[in-house]
Amino acid sequence: xxxxxxxxxxxxxxxxxxxxxxxxxxxxxxxxxxxxxxxxxxxxxxxxxxxxxxxxxxxxxxxxxxxxxxxxxxxxxxxxxxxxxxxxxxxxxxxxxxxxxxxxxxxxxxxxxxxxxxxxxxxxxxxxxxxxxxxxxxxxxxxxxxxxxxxxxxxxxxxxxxxxxxxxxxxxxxxxxxxxxxxxxxxxxxxxxxxxxxxxxxxxxxxxxxxxxxxxxxxxxxxxxxxxxxxxxxxxxxxxxxxxxxxxxxxxxxxxxxxxxxxxxxxxxxxxxxxxxxxxxxxxxxxxxxxxxxxxxxxxxxxxxxxxxxxxxxxxxxxxxxxxxxxxxxxxxxxxxxxxxxxxxxxxxxxxxxxxxxxxxxxxxxxxxxxxxxxxxxxxxxxxxxxxxxxxxxxxxxxxxxxxxxxxxxxxxxxxxxxxxxxxxxx
Length: 427
Description:
The protein has helices at 5-15, 62-65, 74-86, 95-107, 120-135, 150-153, 164-167, 178-187, 209-219, 239-244, 270-273, 289-304, 307-328, 355-368, 385-408, and strands spanning 41-45, 48-51, 56-59, 113-117, 139-143, 170-172, 192-197, 223-227, 250-253, 264-268, 335-340, 343-348, 371-372, 376-378. By secondary structure, it is an alpha/beta fold. It folds into two domains: 5-60 and 307-414, Alpha-Beta Complex (Aspartate Aminotransferase, domain 1), CATH 3.90.1150; 74-304, Aspartate Aminotransferase, domain 2 (3-Layer(aba) Sandwich), CATH 3.40.640. Helix 3 packs antiparallel against helix 12 and helix 4 packs parallel to helix 12.
């Protein structure tokens, strides 16, 4: 049985000076059950990560979808090392800012002009501010997860600290339900600046859905924003908008834009992006050159090699293998797999019983078998066919334990920890 003693000791130390011991909710003990989980990674390479206790994992979290090429990709590392010799941040813009913007404009259908931030939340907040400036309106319709800024997070259960006046301007609608969006827009006619959504996450868009969203958005005088923080440079070189053939007015990018280096982007129509000349979207580190050098190397590799085609093929193998395991274990009423091949979800049916106890047990058994996941499988170019086979085999063993627990009528008895508690549902 794996030991997590050093991780737990380090968590105790970290929590003395860092709330939750982590900078990110999704990397904290809210997502990793205490007693059976690693909490600190010491190093990573390719598709592998090692925790501070020395346990090795095949990493299917991929730094929350930020790693597209693999940890320590040599092309990215070399580009960053070269840039480091010239400097990191400067008193005037560096040429690499223009070079990366040009690459994005070349690759992304909606991109005519580009501005950079550091996190996906910077980009989505910037896009909404620009949309409000362009339309002269305040309300926003949302679908998916769009970051920590007030304008969005205030509409979720995690709205502590967000003024009610801000919260009241954001309205959620249901994915794949055009009538849901129509009802939101018609409830406040002429008041919506933007409709922002993740073009795909857990399930595929139904035929005509994205086209319908665009039509309804424009019919009501608002701008369409695709939050491609995850789907961008993962679903296709031009993002989900290229894959599905629907071009938004604005789009936001982050995550895999630079294979883990901190940079994000707002891109879109030139007439809308012109608002950025007056809208205050300005960062001291927005032009930080190491991350932009990493972005340039990442985008050039996406253009040069079959990165996303390879990831998609591995993902199809993964999905097929997991579905076979679920069927063989007669757990089809409990588990299902969905999502794009590059970003798949292991879903647990609400009708199956104690969902969070089942999820906790599944994670407990997967960590023990050397798989790092929090319920999704975020693939990179570094994941091999052997990695996929290892994941499927680990799920087979973990689901055997879940199957026994469900048949015995006591999932909790199989847990060596307290079950996870829900954080908040965004997808």
